[in-house]
Design goal:
alpha+beta; 9 helices; 19 strands
C-alpha cells in the first residue's frame, strides 16, 4: 500500500468515526450542544435582525437539513420586514403520509431571538428561548424519523423578532392564512428549560382542542411527566407566539416550564438549564404531536380565549363600558358658550369585525350635566340642568396600524338618545328636546381585551323644542374604558 493510499484510508476512517460519533450522541447530548451554542457569548444575545441572530438562524437551518426535513417555502428562510428592519423565520415541513390528511397541518414554533447586549452585558437567553429552539430541533429530528406514521403534515418554525412584538409568528400566521393553509393546531414552545424548578409543564389553551385535556393527560401519563393543563391563555400582561394564530380562530397550545428562571436577565445562562427535564419535555411534545398528526378525529373545539378573539377575520366582541363626559351648550348667533360639569356613563359595547373594518355600537345610560341661560339672569352662571340619558351610537370603524398586541381605530357615525328624566336648579321657560340625535366620532385603542377611547358627539336637532327658544347646540366629549369578551 502506497503512502498516498494509506493517507486516503486514514482520512476515510477518521471521517467515518466522526459520523458514527455524531450518530451515537444521545438526544440530551445534542440538546446540551444546541443550548450552549445559542446561549454562547459569541452570539451576543441573538438580537433580532442582527448578524448574531443570523448565525443562529443558519445553525437552525443546518440542523433542520440534517434531520431530513424539507424547507416549507422555496428556501429555508422566510424573510419579512417590520418598521424598516429585515428579519427571517426558518421554516421546514415534515409531510404527512395520508393522501387527504397531509393537507392539514400542525405548526410547532419556537422563537430564537433574544435581547442582545444592554449596558455592556450579554443577555444570552438560555431558557428564553435557547431551550425552546433546541427542543424544536430535536422534536423535528424525531418526527422526521417517523414521517411514515404521520397522517397530517407538521410545519417546524423557528421564529424571529418575538421579543420585539411577536413579529415572526404574526408574519408566518398571516402568510399561511393568505395561502389558505388548513392549520389544525399551533403550538408555541417557549422557555422549557426549568422543569426541575417549575415542577410541571404548563400547557395553556387546552380547551381550544376537542378532548384536549384527555389527550394531553394520556400522553403525559405514558412517559411520567407532570403537566398543568389550563383551559386558555388568560393574562393580558403576557404574550406568546400563539397569538397571531389564535386570533385567526386556530387552536393553540402555549408550552412552558414557567417563570422560575432568570429570564430577561444576564444570568439566564446555559449551565442553569435542566437538560434531563428538557429531554423529557421534548419527548412529550413529540409524542403529543404524533397523536395530533395521526388521529383522524383530532380537531378544534370551537372555543378561543377572550384575549385571542380580536384578530379573527370576522367576529363579534361584546363587553361592558364606562366613563365620564364633559358637556357644553353653544348658542348660535351669540357669544354664549355654556360649559357643563362632568357626567358619568356606563353600559354595553359591541363590535362586528370584518377584517380592518368594524361596525361598532353601544348602549349606555348616563348622567349629563349642563348650564343653560337663566331667563331671569342671562349674565349669571346659568341654570344647572341634569339629565338621565340613554344613548345609542352606531359607527363604522377603520382599523389603524397594529403593533404587536395593540391595535387602534377611528370611527364615524351617528347617535340617537332619549332623555329619561331631568332636573333644573333654576328657571327656564323652554322645553328641552327629549330625543336628541346627531353625529359621532371616536378613537379607540385596544390592548388585548382592554379598550380606551374618546368620543365626540354633536347634536344635530335643537336642544330646545320651541321655535322661539334660543338656538342651542349640544356637544359632548367622553372618555371611555371598556372590556371586550
Amino acid at each position: 500500500m502506497t503512502t498516498v493510499s494509506r493517507m486516503i484510508l486514514t482520512a476515510a476512517m477518521a471521517l467515518a468515526a466522526i459520523n458514527t460519533s455524531a450518530q451515537e450522541k444521545t438526544t440530551q447530548q445534542r440538546l446540551v450542544e444546541h443550548v450552549y451554542y445559542f446561549a454562547s457569548d459569541s452570539l451576543r444575545g441573538r438580537k433580532a435582525g442582527s448578524p448574531d441572530a443570523a448565525k443562529a438562524a443558519e445553525y437552525i437551518r443546518d440542523e433542520y437539513e440534517s434531520s431530513g426535513m424539507k424547507p416549507y417555502f422555496s428556501d429555508w428562510f422566510m424573510p419579512f420586514s417590520r418598521d424598516g428592519k429585515d428579519f427571517r423565520n426558518v421554516v421546514g415541513v415534515i409531510e404527512g403520509a395520508d393522501p387527504i390528511l397531509r393537507n392539514e397541518y400542525i405548526v410547532l414554533g419556537a422563537h430564537y431571538d433574544h435581547l442582545g447586549v444592554k449596558d455592556g452585558e450579554i443577555y444570552n437567553g438560555a431558557d428564553d428561548n435557547a431551550s425552546g429552539s433546541a427542543a424544536l430541533i430535536e422534536i423535528a429530528r424525531s418526527l422526521a424519523n417517523d414521517r411514515e406514521s404521520l397522517k397530517r403534515s407538521v410545519i417546524i418554525a423557528a421564529l424571529d423578532a418575538e421579543e420585539l412584538g411577536l413579529y415572526g409568528s404574526y408574519a408566518l400566521a398571516d402568510t399561511l392564512h393568505k395561502k389558505g393553509i388548513n392549520i389544525r393546531l399551533m403550538m408555541s414552545i417557549d422557555m422549557v428549560g426549568w422543569l426541575r424548578e417549575g415542577k410541571t409543564l404548563k400547557l395553556e389553551g387546552v380547551s381550544t382542542i376537542r378532548n384536549g385535556k384527555r389527550i394531553l393527560e394520556s400522553e403525559a401519563a405514558a412517559i411520567n411527566i407532570d403537566i398543568a393543563p389550563k383551559n386558555f391563555e388568560k393574562s393580558i400582561m403576557t404574550a406568546t407566539d400563539t397569538e397571531g394564530f389564535a386570533g385567526l380562530g386556530i387552536p393553540t397550545l402555549a408550552v412552558s416550564t414557567g417563570l422560575k428562571s432568570p429570564y430577561h436577565k444576564p444570568e439566564d445562562d446555559a449551565e442553569l438549564i435542566d437538560y434531563e427535564g428538557l429531554e423529557k419535555v421534548s419527548e412529550y411534545i413529540g409524542d403529543v404531536t404524533r397523536q395530533f398528526a395521526t388521529d383522524s378525529d383530532f380537531g378544534p373545539s370551537g372555543r378561543l380565549s377572550f384575549k385571542h378573539r380580536s384578530r379573527k377575520p370576522v367576529g363579534i366582541d361584546i363587553g361592558p363600558v364606562c366613563g365620564f363626559d364633559s358637556d357644553m351648550l353653544r348658542y348660535k348667533g351669540t357669544r354664549f358658550t355654556m360649559d357643563g360639569r362632568n357626567g358619568v356613563m356606563a353600559g354595553a359595547d359591541a363590535r362586528i369585525s370584518l377584517g380592518m373594518i368594524s361596525i361598532h355600537t353601544q348602549g349606555t345610560i348616563g348622567m349629563e350635566n349642563y348650564y343653560i341661560l337663566d331667563d331671569n339672569d342671562i349674565y349669571g352662571k346659568g341654570t344647572r340642568l341634569s339629565q338621565t340619558v340613554v344613548k345609542v351610537p352606531a359607527e363604522l370603524v377603520i382599523g389603524m396600524k397594529r403593533n404587536g398586541t395593540a391595535r387602534s381605530g377611528l370611527g364615524v357615525g351617528a347617535y340617537w338618545s332619549e332623555v329619561l328624566s331631568e332636573r333644573m336648579s333654576g328657571d327656564c321657560s323652554h322645553t328641552t328636546e327629549k330625543n336628541p340625535w346627531g353625529i359621532t366620532a371616536s378613537y379607540t385603542a385596544r390592548l388585548y381585551n382592554l379598550t380606551v377611547g374618546i368620543r365626540y358627539d354633536w347634536q344635530m336637532n335643537g336642544f330646545f323644542v320651541e321655535e322661539a327658544a334660543p338656538k342651542a347646540v349640544k356637544r359632548n366629549f367622553a372618555f371611555q374604558l371598556g372590556w371586550r369578551f
